């Protein structure tokens, strides 16, 4: 699946030309978005760590995707996560060995492999989601429903504008 490039999204090589004309409010917003992304990566890393030190962090993304979308062909998971198919295959092997993912032959095409979470994989993903929920609850303590609603609306608007066309 190829992403549509937007005129609003710069492509490498990046240039610092014109940075002096960027409004200060945009720079401050950029700092806050970077902080948000860093915090999100830290939470994801902790969630990944809970799956075991022997697993590569990228394996967690496979489990997360299967939890969100259900059983799927290995190639579909690789494409959805923008991972090389051979790398995905290695990650799936680790996950199978850890008892978190199971695979079976496809019904329509016996050559295809259908991946799904095991009960243990689902249990650990539920625990990771509960941890993430606790992190968000802690960060939002003291926020009014109105403030949360405003933030949600602004993020929805931000996420839907520009990048996908």
From TrEMBL:
Q: What is this protein called?
A: DNA-binding MarR family transcriptional regulator
Database matches in SUPFAM superfamilies: Winged helix' DNA-binding domain
Q: Which Pfam families match?
A: MarR_2
Q: Please report the stretch or stretches of sequence annotated as the HTH marR-type domain.
A: 29-160
Q: Name one GO molecular function term.
A: DNA-binding transcription factor activity
Q: Does the keyword Chaperone apply?
A: no
**Record keywords, A-Z:** DNA-binding
């Amino acid at each position: 699946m190829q992403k549509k490039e937007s005129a609003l999204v710069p492509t490498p090589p990046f240039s610092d030309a014109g940075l002096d004309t960027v409004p200060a409010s945009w720079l401050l917003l950029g700092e806050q978005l970077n902080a948000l992304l860093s915090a999100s990566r830290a939470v994801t890393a902790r969630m990944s760590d809970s799956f075991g030190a022997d697993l590569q962090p990228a394996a967690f993304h496979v489990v997360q995707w299967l939890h969100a979308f259900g059983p799927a062909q290995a190639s579909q998971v690789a494409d959805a996560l923008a991972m090389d198919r051979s790398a995905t295959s290695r990650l799936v092997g680790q996950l199978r060995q850890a008892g978190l993912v199971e695979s079976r032959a496809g019904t329509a095409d016996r050559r295809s492999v259908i991946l799904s979470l095991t009960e243990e994989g689902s249990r650990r993903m539920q625990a990771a989601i509960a941890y993430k929920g606790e992190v968000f609850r802690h960060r939002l303590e003291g926020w009014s429903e109105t403030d949360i609603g405003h933030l949600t609306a602004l993020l929805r608007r931000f996420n839907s504008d520009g990048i996908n066309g």
